Amino acid sequence: MIVPNKLTRLRPQDAAAALAAAYEQLTGIAPAQPVLGLLIAQSALETADWQSIHNFNFGNQKAGSSYPMIVQFRCSEIVNGVEQFYEPPAPECNFRAYETSASGALDYLRVLRGREHWWQGLHTGDPSAFVDALATPPRYFTASPALYKRVLIERLEQYGSLAEGALNRQAQRPELPPTFLAAPTLPVLSADWRSRSASGSLPSAFSWPPSEGHADEPSGVRSLVTWRDSGAASPATQRHAIELASAPSLLAHLFGFIDRLFARLFGRGPA
């Protein structure tokens, strides 16, 4: 399916964060800092520092005619040492398209992992070895390997430091308790409790922001989905909410009993 072409510009730190998260999602572990630095540098090279990134395509990856989402735009390739330009609807203008930065970053890594020599070159952590691997058939790019290597090293020097910050943020990310993966929001059971919570005298302890995850599609590309409020919570959590919400009513009964007791003791008659 051909979708409209749009620029989805990213801040460098956001691109770095998306790549770090995608690597961990794909492999189950956080990337080594030199590896993440190379990913950031190559993505910056391929997308003009994420200012010419089309439809969240982190690696400027081409698409076959059967790819689920395709975007078309004017492009060029080096053919026999000469730059050749192509205009849509030429098949050379077919590029992969994604709805989110998360799905784009993830598929970029899947493409690299799909060629063993590309993946191994990446994990050397060395820009020269990485480009040599990318230039080994089937090649990732058609440009001169020497030029590609020079520009990659320049981008690594410019953006490589973002890797440390992205990994630190990834490591500090709080893990949600399993109970709240579906982001339940419990109903407020008492008008008194509601007013006290709104005034700030009591915390709103029963509202959890929706979390985001990824759902696999038959195409192998993951699209971003938001887990909606399930409307369900564990019985223990519900009981706790009911006990807290009922506290004002229990106190009212207690004070009423004390008042009636004093009235009888001091002859005021029944209350």
Summarize the structure.
With 271 residues, the protein is mainly alpha-helical.
Itemize the secondary structure elements and their pairings.
Blueprint: H1 12-27, H2 33-46, E1 70-72, E2 75-79, E3 82-86, E4 94-96, H3 101-113, H4 116-122, H5 127-134, H6 145-159, H7 162-172, H8 191-199, E5 212-216, E6 222-226, H9 235-265
Antiparallel strand pairs: 1-4, 2-3, 5-6
Helix pairs in contact: 1-2, 1-3, 1-7, 2-6, 2-7, 4-5, 5-6
Mean pLDDT figure: 77
Distance between the termini: 77 Å
Q: Helix tally?
A: 9
Helix content: 40-55%
Assign the structural class, choosing from mainly alpha, mainly beta, alpha/beta, alpha+beta, or little secondary structure. Answer: mainly alpha
Largest sheet: 2 strands, antiparallel
- The coarse silhouette is elongated
Total DSSP E strands = 6
Integer-rounded radius of gyration: 29 Å
Outline the low-pLDDT stretches.
178-235, 240-247
Strand content: 5-15%
Order of helices and strands: HHEEEEHHHHHHEEH
CATH architecture of the largest domain: Orthogonal Bundle
Strand arrangement, major sheet: 1-4
- CATH class group of the largest domain: Mainly Alpha
The total domain count is 2
CATH fold annotation of the largest domain: Lysozyme
